[in-house]
């Protein structure tokens, strides 16, 4: 008896699932169905038979609301309606505009205006300079402390007008930038954030690529930090508290800290060579943060947009080729941010700082959207503990 192939072409997968092509692609982007390029034609994809059959069976069966809700938390259907951004057709869209196209010309302030549906704000530095901080504090520590100080005193966001919240958001983001960057000659009231970054790091030639990176990182639909910020916003907490929640979540190694893992991998590459380093990381079951993204099965569009404007150092180019060959996954935005930091000799924590400053714009847009609903986000738990004594 002939064994059914493990990988199916799109036509067979669609026939089994009884869905439209868009639904199949969505299942791939959300990690439900594994896909890989067809060796006979790299423009086409093949889909894992077991995943296709499982999704098809689930679609045919009747699922309880509890099951649907449980699956939604882990790369499932969006758990909240949002008009801020989405990933569709392999691209990132900000209110219907291609983020990669915007990165060619827009500033982070322009994107804030688009996402906040307002005039472009200015994240002005404090005229008196940043508040004194512990000299031993890292930029991240200083940023967390600055937001925490405001979260303890700023008024709640609930019940205030959208325009008041927009003005406050620009001020809070300016506070965070002051804390992360410290005193610099670029702290003029009119300086765009990418210019302040370039001046603070003394890398004026990096200003344009910093601008592009900030635009590309401004939002990414309901990622972990954005969802956390929206939960905080749903309670009516202050804007500073919402951004503090987002920043705290961002620091995790599976989120904004992923670029640091890429930098660690590059240190292994410099010692062992790219193939030996990748094989060693795989042998020790260490995740290769530089490769793949569940929402971009054909490659991270943000990564491509950033790499197009820089020449990769040989070690990065070698790692890219080796990793893509061994893993079958393209490099992602974390790889691009680490490469950018190396090319322009930026501080080691520059990728996380860029990520944090850019994403405050998206968090704010989601806070504004959540406040407009007036609803508290309160999921239920599916209890799995010991039996209840009666």
Walk me through the topology.
Blueprint: E1 7-9, H1 10-17, H2 21-29, E2 35-38, E3 41-48, H3 49-60, H4 65-72, E4 85-88, E5 91-94, E6 97-98, H5 99-102, H6 108-116, H7 139-151, H8 162-181, H9 193-200, H10 207-216, H11 224-234, H12 239-250, H13 258-272, H14 274-283, H15 301-307, H16 314-327, H17 333-343, H18 350-373
Antiparallel strand pairs: 1-3, 2-3, 4-5, 5-6
Shape: globular
Distance between the termini: 56 Å
Query: Strands across the major sheet, in which order?
Result: 1-3-2
**Major sheet attributes:** 3 strands, antiparallel
Average pLDDT value?
A: 87
| Total helical segments | 18
Write up this protein.
The structure is a single chain. The protein is mostly helical. It is built from 18 helices and 6 strands. The strands form 2 sheets. It has a 3-stranded antiparallel β-sheet. The longest helix is centred in the last third of the chain and has 24 residues, at 350-373. It is globular, with a radius of gyration of 22 Å. The chain starts with 6 loop residues before the first strand and ends in a 17-residue tail after the last helix. The model has no long low-confidence stretch (mean pLDDT 87).
Briefly characterize the structure:
This protein is 53% helix and 6% strand. The chain is mainly alpha-helical and 390 residues long.
């Amino acid at each position: 008896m002939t064994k059914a192939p493990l990988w199916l072409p799109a036509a067979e997968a669609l026939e089994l699932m009884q869905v439209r092509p868009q639904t199949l692609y969505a299942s791939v982007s959300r990690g439900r169905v594994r896909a890989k390029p067809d060796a006979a034609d790299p423009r086409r994809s093949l889909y894992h038979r077991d995943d296709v059959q499982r999704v098809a069976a689930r679609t045919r069966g009747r699922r309880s609301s509890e099951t649907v809700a449980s699956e939604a938390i882990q790369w499932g259907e969006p758990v909240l309606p949002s008009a801020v951004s989405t990933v569709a057709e392999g691209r990132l869209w900000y209110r219907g505009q291609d983020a990669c196209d915007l990165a060619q010309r827009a500033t982070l302030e322009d994107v804030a205006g688009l996402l906040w549906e307002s005039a472009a704000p200015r994240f002005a530095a404090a005229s008196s300079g940043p508040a004194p901080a512990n000299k031993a504090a890292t930029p991240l520590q200083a940023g967390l402390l600055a937001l925490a100080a405001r979260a303890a005193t700023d008024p709640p966001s609930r019940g205030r007008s959208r325009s008041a919240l927009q003005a406050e958001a620009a001020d809070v983001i300016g506070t965070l930038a002051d804390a992360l960057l410290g005193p610099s000659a670029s702290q003029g009231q009119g300086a765009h954030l990418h210019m302040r970054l370039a001046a603070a790091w003394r890398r004026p030639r990096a200003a344009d690529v910093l601008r592009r990176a900030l635009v590309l990182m401004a939002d990414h639909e309901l990622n972990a930090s954005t969802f956390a910020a929206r939960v905080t916003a749903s309670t009516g907490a202050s804007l500073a508290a919402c951004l503090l929640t987002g920043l705290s979540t961002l620091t995790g190694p599976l989120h904004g800290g992923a670029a640091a893992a890429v930098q660690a991998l590059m240190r292994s590459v410099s010692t062992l060579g790219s193939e030996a380093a990748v094989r060693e990381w795989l042998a020790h079951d260490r995740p290769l943060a530089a490769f793949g993204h569940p929402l971009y099965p054909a490659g991270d569009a943000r990564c491509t947009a950033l790499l197009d404007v820089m020449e990769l150092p040989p070690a990065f180019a070698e790692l890219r080729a080796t990793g893509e060959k061994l893993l079958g996954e393209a490099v992602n935005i974390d790889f691009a941010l680490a490469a950018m930091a190396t090319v322009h000799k930026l501080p080691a924590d520059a990728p996380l700082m860029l990520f944090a400053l850019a994403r405050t714009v998206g968090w704010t847009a989601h806070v504004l959207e959540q406040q407009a609903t007036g609803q508290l986000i309160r999921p239920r738990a599916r209890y799995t503990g010991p039996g209840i004594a009666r």
